Amino acid sequence: xxxxxxxxxxxxxxxxxxxxxxxxxxxxxxxxxxxxxxxxxxxxxxxxxxxxxxxxxxxxxxxxxxxxxxxxxxxxxxxxxxxxxxxxxxxxxxxxxxxxxxxxxxxxxxxxxxxxxxxxxxxxxxxxxxxxxxxxxxxxxxxxxxxxxxxxxxxxxxxxxxxxxxxxxxxxxxxxxxxxxxxxxxxxxxxxxxxxxxxxx
Length: 201
Fold this sequence. Notes:
four-stranded mixed beta sheet, DNA binding, 5 helices, CenT-Element_Derived, HTH_CenpB_DNA-bd_dom, 2 domains, Homeodomain-like_sf, about 30% helix, single chain, alpha+beta
């Protein structure tokens, strides 16, 4: 952004092309940045995104940053989408092959940000959902078996490592409940993960 500062200063704020420029300062910048990075990665991997998904991810990042006064209201989600020029579109078959033009620009900006750091100090995180009650799709039986509705119970796991894999942070584990029955009398500090909870996780 700094190397392009003159370009931004020369833009007429009343011009139509200026409408997509973010002008409102985010109230929760840590959550805002983390959520937008997740959105870009999700788009790159052709992951469907809804308002509910944005809400859940925002709440998750608030928990990770220990921000207790963040609600992730519909209003906040709406303003987040407006600040980043995000809209809901009806999926079309042809749209899947359309290039995501902003990703290349984002990659270049990211390279500019990390070029001055040692790879030992550059970290990347990824998350995955573990559906711990899901049943296998196949089973051994003596006749055709009708399928059952799969359980949606899941936990979210966050993994983080530096670029050289010489340092791996303690995994983050996000459950729906603060004290699930199997962990009722177990100190959270004794777990091999950083334990977080959120009713909408």
